[in-house]
Amino acid sequence: MRTPLKSIRDVAEYQLCTGCGVCASLSPETIQMTDVLQLGVRPIQKGDGTDPNDRKALAACPGLELRHQFPEENTDYVHSLRSAWGPVLEVWEGYAGDPAIRYAGSSGGAATALALFSLEKLGLQAVLHTAARRNAPYLNETVLSHNREDLLARTGSRYAPSSPGDGLRHIEQASQPCAFIGKPCDVAGVQNARALSTQLDSKLGVTIAFFCAGTPSTQGTIELLKKVGIDDPSTVTSLRYRGNGWPGRWVVKWTARDGESREASLSYAESWDFLQKYRQWRCYICPDHTGEFADIAVGDPWHEAPKEGEAGRSLIIARTKRGLDVIRRARDAGYIVKLREGPGLLPASQPNLLATRGRLWGQLLTLRVCGVAAPRFVGFPTFTHWLKHLSIKDRLLSLLGTYKRIRNKKLRERRRLAF
Description:
Elements (H helix, E strand, L loop, with lengths): L7 H6 L8 H5 L4 E6 L3 E6 L6 H9 L4 E3 L11 H7 L4 E7 L2 H6 L5 H11 L6 E7 L2 E10 L2 H6 L14 H5 L5 E5 L1 H11 L3 H6 E7 L7 H10 L8 E5 L8 E7 L5 E7 H8 L5 H4 L11 E4 L14 E5 L2 H12 L3 E6 L3 H5 L2 H18 L6 E3 L4 H7 L2 H17 L11
């Protein structure tokens, strides 16, 4: 029998939470975000979830449901990409026109460059996004950036739990529209929230998502710190997961017991291969790794291997007319340098995601057959990709692998969270 999900507490305790934080913005009196070491940032909910704001929070939850509602007949979309990649108007490869931003960014600095353009040329008041926590840089915090200095100091991917949606009240209360940058699930939650609030909707100038392969828990970062000899994370003074070149290195600085400053570094591949084992369960069954609900999505153009010493390149996807207008104007103003354009850049850069979408059909089937809590996805074709991009062996492995995870991760059980 399928597990009923009637509250944010249910979503979190049956491990379907993405950690976006949108629920905490919609119901701040009853929902509080906290970092659960082995899971990620999670909402802790008071009461029984029947408060009107709690119901709004549940309605906006991207962990529970993702639903595409764009008009299928829109001839502006690249229809060859629709089934696997969602709404796409144009696909570019390029980089930030500002050399410092390009170098500091994880892959060409496009997200930062577009955010800066929005502040300096579109008159947006601030950018809501994620940065390293000032007093504990191995953790994240939600921040508002107002200028180039703010944005440049907060570049680079953060492969640790973050909940930028918990800061939506800052956008809603702003005197001018703002930009939002987050993971695909964060942006999906924001889009759900704006549908529930005309005030928020009027204050969202542009949404930018970055490609995401999943969010590791804080436990993952702590174990990686131990791997390089840091047993006490409170001694960490700086931690970058990527950036300062493409794809950049994982670099940590800390104060040793002798009082001296030390530094350790791992390649991007070494650090991600370690961290990805700690991804939260919901990321394993996510249909959206490329920001399908954003105005603009950015990621790595992996169709070509990074060259030694390369400053970086970005894949830039316009998903809405608003996003396309911002990208084109940013290029005309020199904030973005365009190298090439073409819809084929997207599947060439992320070929594994076709099989990922196909596996999702079998994963969801297994969850439902076993009576395990599962999210609802509407407008995400999966069965076609199950047949087209997976061999019979891969299909069986998908079914068996999901069944094993149900047991290993104890997905049938409620994992209690409390204040």
